[in-house]
Structures are given as C-alpha cells and as structure tokens.
Amino acid sequence: MSIFRKKSVASTIVDVVECINKPVEKKKKEVIPEQVKIIFSDAKTEGKKRGYERAAQEYKRVLEEVEWNYKEISKIIKKHGEFYDWKSAKLLGIATDLKEEKEKVEKKVESKTKEVSRKYDIPIVGVSSAIGMGMNPCMELNPYLQVSAALGMVYEYKKRQMDKAEQEGYQEAKELYEQKIKYMKRKLKRLEREADEEIKAMMHLISDTIDALVEGKIKVNDLNTLL
Fold first, then answer.
1. What is the DSSP letter of 199?
2. pLDDT at residue 148 is higher than 50
3. Closest CA to 87 of 187, 200, 169, 173
4. pTM for the full predicted model
5. pLDDT by residue (tens digit) across 203-227?
6. Distances in whole angstroms, Cα of residue 47 to Cα of each of 33, 39, 58, 87
C-alpha cells in the first residue's frame, strides 16, 4: 500500500489556514499560492471582475477601431473644397487597408474554429454557428463542454464557481461593447446615406467591410474563450 493518501477537505483547509497565519519575515515574504487565494475569495465577485476585465481588453480594441474609421471617413466626406478624385482616393486607401485586415482575420477564424473543433470533438459547422455578435459560445456549446461534476476538494468547487462567474461577467461585458459597436456601425450607415452620389458605392463597400471585419474579430474572441 502506498504511504501517500489523499487529504480530506478538512485537513486541506487546516493547511491553508496555517499557511496564511504563518509569520512573514521582513526580508523574505512568502507568496500565497493561487489555490489559497481562490479558497478564501468571494468566487462569484472575483470571477465576474475577471470576466469584465478580459472582455474589456478584447472588445475595447474592436470598438476603438470602428470609432477611428468613422472619424477618418467623416473627415473625408465632410471636407469642403475637395474634388471627387481626392475623396475617392482617400476612401479607397481606407477600403484597401480594411480588406487586407479582414482577410487576415478570416484566416484566423478558420484556423481557430478547426482548433476548437478538434479540442472538443465538435463538428466545424457546430462551432461556426455558436460564435459571433450576439452569441454566447459557452452556452451554445454547453453540452459539449460539460465535465464531471464529482468535486471532492474545496479548491475545485470554488474554482468552478469562479470560472462560471468569469464567463458570465465576460458575456455581460461583451454584450455592452457589442451595443456600442452597433451604435457606431449605425453612424457609419448614416454617413453613407449623407455622402455624395459619386462616392456612395465606395462608402457602401467600406461599411460592408467593417461589418465583416468586426464580426470576424468577435468570432476570434469567442473562439479564444473556448481554447
């Protein structure tokens, strides 16, 4: 028989408390393990906070890119005294840059979709249908992502609580950013309607490309949450 035995939940908590109460030397501070922090934290609050922060990092960049393009296009369209050729050339430059970026993002979506499909043994079409604006990939793919609920240790239970709360916080923040992104896209559409007839076609192309680019970036973010 092995001399090593699994610790009970009670003995684990005792070890944790002793670790926290241990005197800390002035010159050498002891780092509290991540497991200890999780056990004695408010898992739901901490998890939601992590989710909000993670979503903000990812979606703030998407929103800022749409805002930047809106401002640049608005300046070009509303510039007085400039000829059609000048405006058209400027808009073509923006359209070309957006198209190149969109193609890169589409390749990333394709690659990560295959990665998620292999990881969870889910058909590619199933993964594709669960990601994008307005989607909650963890909820949509929940039947595939469930694992055993047999939890024996306090850390494991709290960690599961935190992970669930983090995903909820992430989804809430994602939806808020999506609302802001949709608002900016509506402003772009208004700008398209206000543009001179000569550049309406170019504006339509830019607007459609931005739509596809934003959708692609949101899909990449969704896929990253599954990897």
1. G
2. no
3. 200
4. 0.69
5. 889 999 999 999 999 999 889 888 8
6. 17, 13, 17, 48
